[in-house]
Amino acid sequence: MMSSRSAPSALLRAVVFGPAVPLGLAVLPAHTAARQEPPSTPPAGWEATAIDYSNVPYPHRVSYLNVRLMGQDHRMAYMDVAPEGEANGRTVVLFHGMNFFAAAFGPTIEALTGAGFRVIAVDRLGYGRSSKPLIHYNLHIPARNTKALLDELGIEQVAVVGHSMGGMVATRFTSTYPEVVAHVVMVNQIGLSDTRPGRPWSDPEAAYRSVLERTTYRSVLAGHRRYYPNGWRDEYMPWVMYQYGLTLGGDWPRMARVRASQQRILYEDPVVHEWQNIEVKALVIGGADDPLTRDYAGRARNVAETLRNAELVLFPGVGHNPHFEIPEEYHAELVRFLRSNPEEPADQGWR
Model pTM? Predict the structure, then answer.
């Protein structure tokens, strides 16, 4: 089913909705450059990624919020980037996914600040330059810490954008603090179903041992290659390097335990029962051919139908990271939606 809203004429793509592209609909390739192949072994010269990411470049200055959690003091890292040119008076908060961190939002920050938005990109506890506490993680923690950051900065209302697991964080934040959120955007969100029925709970120690012993260059690379149905590009390689680099340092056992605990959020802390209560203007957006989720397009449509006030935009032939695969097309849609009046109903032409 095609959207009743016309896609920008400059975009060489079609916006479609539903589990499959309708018969007869011509869809141009999202990316036609020659396919590249990543190296089969780690390139020479790769170094260990410091557990505090101090040797990983960030596109903007990093600041820290002191947070106290479970009787311990920690720091949450974030970038607070001012708009370029004329400010529009709006602020956007970005939540990253499981295998990324705030610096991966570089192109999105550039697109949003160029459109007049102030942008705050956070490293959740356990990621990037934030502290890596050995705790039982859940989605309430980043929601609570982000609200504390907004209070610290004196920001009363924001739009929130979450990619992958960050979409789950955006859902939880919006569900918990609806008065703070003007727009919510879920980009190739994972956790689109409740996986607990028929699936017994397992010992977290087993998950830790699996991450510790089975994480290799090949496993990390394979995970990232799954994101891109149109093939590999060399520009994706740094994100493999940073993730794999964690295994090369002496802090890997601690980091493996943190990652294992974060992975369990999918099973232990689902958000599927919260969408029906979210009235904030929402956008469900992503690559329609995301291989991380079975029938992502169909499940994304279900999310949009369950939310009370949502738009749905899917890019045919694109995978899990549209902000990397088709940055111009994706950011055009993101900026369009975030510029919209939050008091006006979301476009329902996709239904």
Answer: 0.90
